[in-house]
Amino acid sequence: MWRGYKHSWTYNHRINRIGSFVDNEKKEITYTSASGFGADSTFYTAGYSLLKSNKFHCEYGKVVLELEGKEKELIVATQEIELPYTGQEIKENKFYTVLNGYDVLSMRKADKLNYLQIKIDEVSYTENTVKFNISASIIANCHSLECELLEKKMHYKIDVYYLLMRGEQEHINAQNFSYSKDYTWDKKNELVNNPDTMQLQLMANEYQNVAVGIKSFSANFDDDHWFLEWNNYVETVGYIGETGMVHLLVDFYYKCWSEGMKKKTEFTKHNQFSMKSKGQANLNLSLAVFQFNDTEIEQQNESGRMFWVGRNASSNSPDAMDRIQFRK
Asked: Phi-psi bin for 25: left (phi > 0), alpha (psi -120 to 50), beta?
């Protein structure tokens, strides 16, 4: 189960490619990153949880959402997933959905983001099917020096990975919780990341352990901005089964610029594109906190560094991907 990521460049960029996702078939987690014109290194941490049990079942897959239109306009894409189950399976089981990651790729040119949302809905049922929607929304624009100012169209492809879990309620249960954070920055005072701890009340005296997943996130900016750091990451840090109390560490963070980022750049010839700007951001996160019986849970983090050549190279390149096998 995917738990998000932490991302940083050495100086700020447009979004050419960014994401992280779990591939259950290949038993690996993948990180993706590509800047626009400027070459740079990405430093990342990707989180996931290994769940081992014969008391519940999982279905997983991917949808491809094409978001194409004019800059500054809200573009929305939605796809419905419909999976067949017997009436008895639907009657006996609880069904839960979470995101298992995503991958945002620019197909025309790298832009700066005004708004981004990716979400997976709750399930609905027919007599012999389970259905749910996956959607993505984006507003992108770019009017700074390195942008293609005469090109007013945008096109992003967003691969969204999903995980559907089903099991009897005595073995699996989930509750959803919301989290939000606002950031305001200027050109003088550098933002500092302060992750939050959430204390949540779950069912007491019913379940042995917990895991956390992400159902949706959104980032809403006052203008189109460069990205320097971008974290949407969560982990469990404590759980008491007798009381049902769980503590989560939530690191949902955006940073536009840092002092001295011109000196940190991998290639000094690109310093001219490293700039400060002021702005505001509103970040929203929806979490699914699962309680389990008869399940082994192990949280894992994988950290790495990737280098990207820049020069507006295609985001659809193997150099923009870093794959790591699950640890056993």
From this structure: alpha
**173 and 290 Cβ atoms separated by less than 8 Å:** yes
Place of tokens 């995101």: 99
CA distance 288 to 132: 15
DSSP element (H, E) containing 88: helix 87-92
Q: Residue 244 pLDDT > 60, yes or no?
A: yes
Residue 270: predicted pLDDT: 64
292 pLDDT above the threshold of 60 = yes
Round to whole Å and give the CA distance between 85 and 246.
33
What's the token pair of residue 74?
A: 């809200």
The number of residues in the chain equals 328
Q: Kindly provide the residue ranges of all beta strands, DSSP E only, lying in 142-244, ordered along the sequence.
A: 153-167, 172-185, 196-201, 209-225, 227-240
Tokens of 216: 């949706």
Q: Note the pLDDT of residue 188.
A: 95
Nearest residue to 291 (alpha-carbon basis) of 177, 161, 184, 197: 177
* Tokens at 107, concatenated: 């197909």
- Supply the pLDDT for residue 120: 98
* Residues ≥6 apart with Cβ < 8 Å to 174: 94, 96, 288, 289, 290, 291
Nearest to 228 by CA among 37, 71, 35: 35
